[in-house]
UniProtKB/TrEMBL annotation:
Homodimer. GO terms for molecular function: aspartate-semialdehyde dehydrogenase activity; NAD binding; NADP binding; protein dimerization activity. Pathway: Amino-acid biosynthesis; L-lysine biosynthesis via DAP pathway; (S)-tetrahydrodipicolinate from L-aspartate: step 2/4; Amino-acid biosynthesis; L-threonine biosynthesis; L-threonine from L-aspartate: step 2/5; Amino-acid biosynthesis; L-methionine biosynthesis via de novo pathway; L-homoserine from L-aspartate: step 2/3. It catalyses: L-aspartate 4-semialdehyde + phosphate + NADP(+) = 4-phospho-L-aspartate + NADPH + H(+). Belongs to the aspartate-semialdehyde dehydrogenase family. GO terms for biological process: lysine biosynthetic process via diaminopimelate; methionine biosynthetic process; threonine biosynthetic process. This is aspartate-semialdehyde dehydrogenase. The active site is at residues 149, 276. Keywords: Amino-acid biosynthesis, Methionine biosynthesis, NADP, Oxidoreductase, Threonine biosynthesis. It is an enzyme of class 1 (oxidoreductase). Residues 24-139 form the Semialdehyde dehydrogenase NAD-binding domain. It comes from the Bacteria.
Amino acid sequence: MTFPGGEHPVTPASAKRQVAARPTLAVVGATGAVGRVLVELLATRADVWGEVRLFAGPEGVGSEVPVLGRTEIVRALEPGCFEGTDIVLFEAPEDVVLEWAPLAVASGAVAVDGSAAFRLHRDVPLVVPEINPAAARMRRIGIIAAPRCATLVLTVALAALHAEFGLSRLVVTAALAASGRGRIGVDALRRQTAEVAGDPTVGTRTGDLRRAVSEHDDDPFEAPLAYNLLPWAGDSVEDGWSSEELGLRNETRKILGLPELPISATCLRVPVVSGHSLTVHAEFEREPDVHRVREILDSSAGVIVYDDPDKGEFPTPADVVGSDPTWVGRVRRSLDDPGGLELFLCGDNLRKGAALNCVQIAELVAAEQPPAAAGTDSGEV
């Protein structure tokens, strides 16, 4: 903050010592789509941080970013850059995390990874603070992972229902927003929409959408997304499944502690800027009562029930964007399965789906008294 005359007030020595005593936070990927949201979120959370260091790739280095009432210059990753940090948040590509997260741990920091690099590593806890906060202490190699956006939207709603009724099977269709591919995804959707919006005939004849949308070498989607829907998201993995689908399956199992839970997931890419949506068929060991289901969801942290279709009340991506909770609607019993429940879930993939969860994990680590040493197992369950 700049004061009259362009000067900053003198900070008393006692205040300097107080700031210095607070943990130092580093954010890697601070200028990306999720990183920007994460930095903004810091100002809305508890005042627990001292120094905050921001890092990014070459395109972001040198830029000025406001954080916690002051302006920070974005730095480049370089040897020794994490010395003196306590927690390093990574919102960066997997190859960057694989290289730099171990270096952060070696410098004495705890690494919190928002990418897929360590999510399924046996010695890395996969943490959703509303569900398994104690797991954050079980960081045997000094790294804590956060799940993918769709997994977060799903598990925040399902964890309490599992505790009450015993989850036995899941069938999920995830409609993923363009921002799931970062800024390049949003830019491609906006460009494509602008190209076709003025032609009322586009979408009425085979192939006309592909002809109307210009091709770019850096397009992140396999086909035009504007005025369209793609039955694919992620990379090809095996037997026709995508990385998004198997990731959703495996991460949900790990977070809920159900390694054998049958899960079938289909991931779509939809022409939505931000906000992932999921249709869920959940089967339980004990027959769920819809009234009790609503009570549980209403009292669950990070969940809002918005469900009265007769009044036009149900969550949509455009309505929940910019909010933190998982929104739940269309709650109903399955018609042909006494133990089945149907749900529609919606959440902002850039906020709780990515940035907020990492910030919450960092706050868990910062609150440890005394802090568990990075790279060691605290022995707590």
